[in-house]
Design a protein that fits this description.
Aspartate Aminotransferase, domain 1; binds pyridoxal-5'-phosphate; alpha/beta; about 45% helix; three-stranded antiparallel beta sheet; Aspartate Aminotransferase, domain 2
């Protein structure tokens, strides 16, 4: 059987030969002494790209989010985030376990408004309320189907945050996709936030690595939390070289992934009675729902699709996610849609 068409995630990509060559020849040193030239280059380049004073490399996006929470909150605080954000759903309760904070989930479809934030922020110093100290935005929003948060609303939210004395954090694991879809530069998207996280292991196709960017003092504090959590590595340049290669060679091709997701979604909607609002297909993620009238639920569809060489994720009992990336072609995305349509209309 030929290799399956793997649409489970944009993290399943394997480093290209050129990326492996860049990794193999990377200048390296001990990053805990600040002596890894490739990591220093990547951090400087990313600080510049994101319009921040400083940046620090982290092994994963989950640790970047955890370190950001540690840096910007104190135990017992409350953090406002969008409903179904990665921090609330995909990090094993890390916000509570590592930072000791609770997350107040607001909005829907990956979005909330400045008014929603104002309503959710608890009055300071009221006897029984936790202190709301941080608002976090996920852009693009994974579980909402990779939707881009409109920048005018981001600016309004961050203005309200400043007025209310809240810190601001951008979970931009897929900020590259938000930039490609909106036409806004990375530094413009990052500008209103105190701390910004990006991931090299999603659409950019590197085998690992994330990064936090912000002011010198916040990044110095984040670095201490990173070390405390065991996230400081040694000859990290091997990973940094992959990220630098991805910035040079994979960033500009993201619109291709977006067009492939769109083609997949349109074909699926045209052929099968799934619930899928095409206006949510803005980047490389397609999240669709199986109405109760369909015999198949999401885990069963996922299992059947696997038998036909197509991998998709059951994201809920009747919710399915498919993600495009640099290891799937337009033709593969179209035939994956055809397989799902055949299973759903049988
Ligand atoms: C994947 C992801 C993360 C976590 O990244 P890992 O490297 O998988 O730990 C954080 N936030 C968002 C929005 C993500 O999609």
């Amino acid at each position: 059987m030929t290799a399956p068409i793997d649409l489970r995630s944009d993290t399943v990509t394997r480093p290209t030969d050129a990326m492996r060559a860049a990794m193999a020849s990377a200048p390296v040193g001990d990053d805990q002494y600040g002596e890894d030239p490739s990591t220093n280059r990547l951090q400087a380049r990313m600080a510049e790209l994101l319009g921040k004073e400083a940046a620090v490399w982290l092994p994963t996006g989950t640790m970047a989010n955890q370190v950001a929470l540690r840096t910007l909150t104190r135990p017992g605080d409350e953090v406002v985030a969008c409903r179904e954000s990665h921090a609330a759903w995909h990090e094993l309760g890390g916000a509570a376990a590592n930072a000791g904070v609770q997350i107040h989930e607001i909005g829907q479809g990956g979005l909330f408004t400045a008014e929603d934030l104002r309503a959710a922020t608890k009055p300071r110093n009221f006897a029984i309320f936790p202190t709301t100290t941080l608002v976090q935005i996920e852009n693009t929003h994974n579980r909402a189907g990779g939707v881009v948060v409109p920048q005018p609303e981001v600016l309004r939210i961050c203005a309200v945050a400043q007025e209310l004395g809240l810190s601001t954090f951008l979970d931009g694991a897929r900020l590259w996709n938000a930039s490609a879809a909106s036409g806004l530069a990375l530094d413009a998207l990052a500008a209103p936030f105190d701390l910004v996280a990006v991931a090299f292991s999603k659409g950019l196709g590197a085998p690992g690595g994330s990064l936090l960017a912000g002011s010198k003092s916040l990044i110095a504090a984040a670095d201490r939390h990173r070390r405390r959590m065991g996230g400081a590595m040694r000859q990290n340049g091997i990973f940094s070289a992959a990220a630098l290669h991805a910035l040079d060679h994979h960033l500009a091709r993201l619109p291709e992934d977006h067009a492939n997701a769109r083609a997949f979604a349109e074909r699926l909607v045209a052929g099968a009675p799934v619930q899928l609002d095409l206006s949510t297909v803005q980047t490389n993620i397609v999240v669709f729902h199986l109405p109760a009238s369909l015999a198949l639920d999401a885990p069963t569809l996922s299992a059947r699709a696997r038998e036909h060489g197509v991998l998709v994720n059951a994201f809920g009992a009747r919710t399915v996610r498919a993600v495009t990336h640099l290891d799937v072609t337009r033709a593969q995305c179209e035939s994956a849609a055809d397989v799902l349509v055949a299973l759903l209309t049988r």
